[in-house]
Fold these 3 entries.
Entry 1:
Amino acid sequence: MAEYAELHAHTNYSFKEGASFPDEMALRAVELGYRALAITDHDNLVGAMEYAQAAKGIDLHAITGAEVTLEDRGHLTLLASTQQGYSNLCRLISFAHVLNDHLKPGLDIALLAGHATGLILLTGCANGPVPRLLMEGKRDKARATFLQYQEWFGPGNVYLELQQNLVYGDTERIKRLAEFGHELGVPLVATNNVHFHVRERHRLQDALVAIRHNKSLEEVRHQLRPNTEAYLKSPGEMAELFRELPEAISNTVVLAERCEFNLTSGLSYRFPGYPVPEGYNPLSYLERLCREAAVRRYGTITDEVEARLQKELRLIDRHELAGFFLIYREIIQIAHDVQADLGLVEPETPIEASPPGRGRGSSVAMLVGYLIGLSHIDPLCYNLSLERFLPDENMPNVPDIDLDFPRNIREELIKRVHARYGWDHAALTGMISTYKLKGAVRDLGKALGLPSDEVDKLAKRSEHAPATELQSEMEA
Amino acid sequence: MVSPTRGADVTRALRPLNQPSPIEVEADSEGVPARVKQGQSWITIEAVHDHWRIHQAWWRGMPVIRAYFAMTLSDGRRATFFQDGVTGQWLRQSYG
């Protein structure tokens, strides 16, 4: 049986372009006998962890990558083979959004030079610079471009990407790329530019494109895929498509094996340190701050306070969290300063006496939290157990501390946190909106070109339910 | 209004360019054309150079589903045929 690894696939996190969830892609890949699959969403890694976790659960080798859009709107496919490669990919995607336009990202190609280590480059779809130049007959320019990629990434890390989606022009493009590859002695790799996990999902993919353009399918018909071939194909189907270039198929497996980076285990995250005054380390400085606050809180450090403090500091030291808590305290201090500047609190009031935020969840069980202003709940008074938040054994996850700040300081606090840490070290987390039934009915109705008053009537009758219930709602 | 410089017959003579024309084709077990009927005789297909598919307009009552083949006939001529995925009919049409 042919062996093949798909190295270019989009999930629904290629927003309004990909039509399948990461777990659908992963499950289908395993059903088809794949051992590896790369998800390469457009200009983001939003679905990368979700995919990696789904793949881990079913013993599929998840390769992390992205299809990156260049400033000239060309595309390149990048795969992370090492942690350094993943780090570089994150930076490149960030540059594409920050230095260009976050709604229409575009990467300055010159930035690849300093961020190529640990990445494998595939020359992209029909819109890749090299295939485009070859189809325009600009062979010398294509050669120069390809050699530049090799200089940046290393000769063994650049592959010519061949796609046969049975679209008019694909055969000629493959012919030119293969000749080019054989002339230069560079490897070829086949991909299918997957946009949905099964063929039947092509209708949704078309509808998503229409929704993206806010038009009907009829109005955007020239921008839709010309056929339904961009589904996750079986290794046998791919081998048949490339029967005259079997190396393009076998190279996918070679490449997949080189991509050793695993997002679920390869990040080796370390908690941050903290710049402390001379004579201290983060733990001893945290202890000093807690002792000073404990005297203010309790009048004296009782045996009970001392025992609890020692226990928590030991656990904080064990899990290397001292810097983590000091950063939280700093943010709380910034929030306190904002409150003081707005006249909401006296500047000299200690932060633990009037915490600007409200801690919630299991973190309020910490005495350290109570003393650094993270929480307004005295855990000793309410006999709160520490184990749920800070266990003695290995912690499976990063401690989850939720801090809510009042609305009236939010805007200024956001600005000051960004100013303190820098715009490249602080960010607002994005929210991904998902369809409710009403919205799905309206958008699909418009895409299908249905009369707007009929769509409105249907939408109003729809229950307040997730869009996943659309089918049962229509049958009802 | 400007009078037409040619007679009214010109209007009736206008027809869409590159209209596909039905042909009779025998295909192999994989659906690839093997020979085509021309007049009373059959011409063998020497080689198939390219194959592409169209599947569009599924939202209309009649989707457009076609499997195209660009080929060289045994008499040296080049031709493009497609099989209609809805009716199964084979048609000839210039492409590209």
Note: Chain B has one helix and seven strands.
Entry 2:
Amino acid sequence: MTQDNGSNLLKATNEDTSGPFFPIYFQDESLEDLTVLGPGIVGAPSGQHIILCGRVLDRHGNLANGVLMEFWQANAKGIYNSPANLGHPDLDSWFNGYGRLRSASGEYKFCTIMPGASDSRAPNITITLFSDGISRIVTQVFFEGHKANETDPVLKSLDTDDQARLIARHGGQTDGGAEIYLLDIVMAGVNETPFFDDFES
Amino acid sequence: MTQFGRQLGIGPTDNTSDQRTPRKPLRLIPSVARESFVPVVPARYVIRTHEWDMTRIAPGRPRGDGTPIEVTGTLRNENGTPIRDALIEIWNANHHGRYRHVEDASGLQLDENFFGMGRVVTDEDGNYRFWTISPGAYLARPDIGRWRPKHIHLSISGGSARLITQMYFPNEPNNASDPMAILMGDGFENNIGKTYETSDLDVDEGYRFDIVVGGRNATFFE
Ligand SMILES: [Fe+3]
């Protein structure tokens, strides 16, 4: 195997664009609505139902068709279902916190529960975007009206314009009682959403 | 204070890359927030047992047009530890360069014996294997005559490992002009399958494609 010079680490395989044809066939509805366990199953995760929705836009303000979106969040008590939290008393057995959808048009709608605040963090959902023309880009969305937004370390690392680009607007309630939050993600150009890098590189 | 990471490159001659690549440098994640950015994909996927053999639509059916190939490899993290039970979702164009996807408007020929989508799971030692038909190259930019070289798309999810990549083929004429290959630079070598003998197998060509999940895709839980 190839190795980095001066390091014992293996050289990572390059990411590549997903292209325009990520198979719709691989779609899994149970990952698009995390409030529902599955057909005919009694039980549900605890927490306030929310719908996070909006558009993914390109540099010209056009909808970015064919995007694959992945979501990652803590449960209502602010605990992530990660190996680090194995056995944590506040894990929710009915909530994994990972969602995925592919949008043909570039408009998206993700049904989930409001994540809890954890440690020093404001409630947030990590969004990963894959699409034609790019490799993975990652950002994090916050929710209008949360006091913890003012002290969140990710928001605080950004200037005020960029902060506003990551805070989903409250957009009322559905008949079923889910709170609606709206956020457009702008991949490039004017009003570009801030995206994040995992490591110094 | 905003700290900046990489500036993403735009794939030359790739319109979509130009439209969708962020122009501002990426922001570095404050270290206290790093953990929150690493998803853990639950292993709740459904896979049909015959999906590893994409050379035919279902067991007992005729094979698609073109050259049947095997692709095998090992999935590891940067430390060399195999990643077991990871889901690999695979899709590739048929022999004529056409995807069986409702949004593929190329007009190229569909193959009634080729589906072009499959899923496999890595074994205890991180190994995976699938058969497919060697994909055709396709004309991605008819206006400037730029082709996409033969490639197979692979999406890998396992625990906190997450990667979407493509396997390319050695000595293909269109490799050098591919926008993604240009962005990868010398690293492109890593994304080319390495041929091996398959005289003992019911396929014509074999490609070894070892995958290392790391860098930005790293999992620091495992
Ligand atoms: Fe492709």
Note: Confidence is low (pLDDT under 50) at residues 218-222 of chain B.
Entry 3:
Amino acid sequence: MNNRLINWFKFASPQSFYPLAGKMLPWFVVLTVAFGLPALWLGFFVAPTDAVQGEGYRIIFIHVATSWMSMFVYCVMAFWAAIGITYNTRLSGMLTAALAPTGALFAFLSLWTGALWGKPMWGTWWVWDARLTSELILFFLYLGYIALTAALDDPRRADRAGGILALVGVVNVPVIYFSVKWWNTLHQGASVSLTKSPTMAHTMLWGMLLMALCLWMYTIAIALYRVRAIILERERHTTWVADLPEVKA
Amino acid sequence: MSALLAIVRRDLLLAARRKSEVLTALFFFMIVVSLFPLGIGPEADMLRKIAPGILWVAALLSAMLSLNRMFAADHQDGTLEQMALSPTPLALLVGGKVLAHWLVSGLPLVFLAPVLGIQFDLSARALGVLMISLLLGTPLLSLIGAIGAALTLGVRGGGVLLSLLVLPLYVPALIFGAGAVEADISGLGASGHLALLGAQLALALFFAPWAATAALRIALE
């Protein structure tokens, strides 16, 4: 018998993770709302109007949070992919697959809100800035992962091939970021500076942090929801799935 | 080491027997490069400016055209399984296949590029830098491409999927490869770009055969 507090490997089995995910899901939904409402309230009502940018800057609250999350989710995916390849656990691959659409969504939203913000602020929808370009490539990496796993019919092969792709991608993300950054400085100089932002009001910072936490909790909630669906789909031939009350009903 | 050489010799022999496949990729490179002046216009100043980027993008695309075939034939006739069972480490054999792919589809580009560069009115010095950047960069394309080729082995619609997987990973090679030539033209000196390209090559040389091997083993299961 093992004397650790929790035997983590117990939850590596889809059978025991499915009910656990079901129990955790409502809590993360509650946390999403609990962080999201004050974030929106701070962002829309409390944060002062920016002296230069007017009201339009308020898109920052969603834009910054989605950008952070799009990068973070890719790292989490790579983490689960590494676990999956090392321990050969089935659940890790399912979690990686469950996170990918959310990550791609965040990358897309980050680009989209960035364009909406860029038009009134810089007068253009798109600049070939280092951050925008590397975010775009990150979006392509997500699409590549989703396309690869969708093209492979055998789910186990899809998980493991996708895992290798996620790991190769995560090694490349810093290389891509710095190469784009140096390429950018060589080409266009400092026509648009994103880094020299004016000192931010505390309420703005809090709004962004709360929104990031809200999206983080949302990611966990939606990934748990999606992983439950994936488990049901892949384990539909087993007796424990057939015995589930929600399946019987 | 002799196993690696044997693989290289075998793949080169196979390529020599199917010349059209190799030549198609090279002609593709030449045609794509020649299309750009037709689309953009013949002003020498403009052409000189865009030449490095166009030559490099065309090199990426033509290297990608032949990636599909890196493992496909061996996978179909079962050779790949025998390689996986052989006492020689599979990563070494994969390295041999990558080397052969580069010799067939990367190295010719290095020698074709300066000829096409003349069409774009590049100076002799810039052509030299272009050759060096391609010499360092095309093996990188073969190495990264091998991972993609192994991952998409036996997948329906593998060709299009391969481009989606591999092209984003080619971005750093493109930036520093084309950047080296541009930096040389603008008088900044190309050594920094070339050093970074070389560093990427060293990294890929170490990691890519290993990742491609892991992907192959998944495909062979």
Note: Chain B has one domain: 2-220.
